[in-house]
Amino acid sequence: MILEVQDLRVRYGAIVALKGISLTLGQGEIVTLIGANGAGKSTALRAIMGLVPAAGGTIRYKGEIINDLPTFMIVRSGVSLVPEGRAVFANLSVRENLALGAYTRTDSGVAADLDSAFTIFPRLKERIDQNAGTLSGGEQQMLAMARALMSRPDVLLLDEPSLGLAPLIVHTIFEAIKAVNQRGTSVLLVEQNANAALKHSHRAYVLETGSVTLNGPSPEVAADPRVKEAYLGEAS
After folding, report:
1. Measuring CA to CA, which residue among 187, 188, 172, 98 is closest to residue 137?
2. Domain assignment of residue 24, yes or no
3. Which strands form 15-25's sheet, in the order they lie side by side?
4. Residue 92: CB atoms within 10 Å
5. For the whole model, what pTM was predicted?
6. Which of 95, 99, 189, 221 reaches 20 to 30 Å from 111, CA-CA?
């Protein structure tokens, strides 16, 4: 497994956000975390990235414990996060945002990876000198993903990539996730659009109030009556 989370616990003061969750991500997999608001999905990604401290448990990347690493070192080691809300640099151009995504790199492959990002997101090439703040919501999501890919990650963490987007753009984003995965990047996906997440992932974990209540191959999770009723809008 390229990423292993074991008995991860996170607290925000007196509030226990994660109550000892365990999950794995294999090389070349897309694994999704689904659950209601407040279930702890985003907290799990933030803890993996070192953005919130773990109160207990271990996070291993390529077999090495990364709990105590600062976020920039986790990025350098090959893990990158696309945060909820996109968080693009609104006053910088598309080109400048992408350049910042590669700030940790000193190799000669940055230009080739920029071309690769434009292959996945051709609309960004059309807007390369446009300020990110003037892009549509869908274009900003594309930019946030492309910026994360510029660090050449082996693991990409995606936090609610379809949030607030029109259905056609949601389809484009999930096709891009599939393309990124097919190029060898493992993806851990947090997504409230459970239908799309389960359709485009290999395995799934269901989080409820900080605990994993169900996990398995995505088709099996999607077929579970509890998941159908709670997340897929189908009567049990």
Report:
1. 172
2. yes
3. 15-25, 3-12, 56-61, 64-65
4. 15
5. 0.93
6. 189
Domain contains 224: yes
pLDDT by 10s per residue, the chain, length 236? 999 999 999 999 999 999 999 999 999 999 999 999 889 999 999 999 999 999 999 999 999 999 989 999 999 999 999 998 888 999 999 999 999 999 888 888 899 999 999 999 999 999 999 999 999 999 999 999 999 999 999 999 999 999 888 898 999 999 999 999 999 999 999 998 999 999 999 999 999 999 999 999 999 999 999 999 988 876 55
Q: Which two tokens stand for residue 39?
A: 């279930």
132: Cα within 13 Å, side-chain hemisphere: 22
Answer whether residue 114 is part of any domain. yes
What helix, strand, coil percent values describe the chain, rounded to 5? 40, 25, 35
The CATH number that applies at residue 166 is 3.40.50.300
8 A C-beta contact, residue 202 and residue 30: yes
Based on the structure, what is the number of domains in the chain?
1
Containing structural domain, residue 221: 3-231
Distance in angstroms (rounded) separating the CA atoms of residues 69 and 49: 9
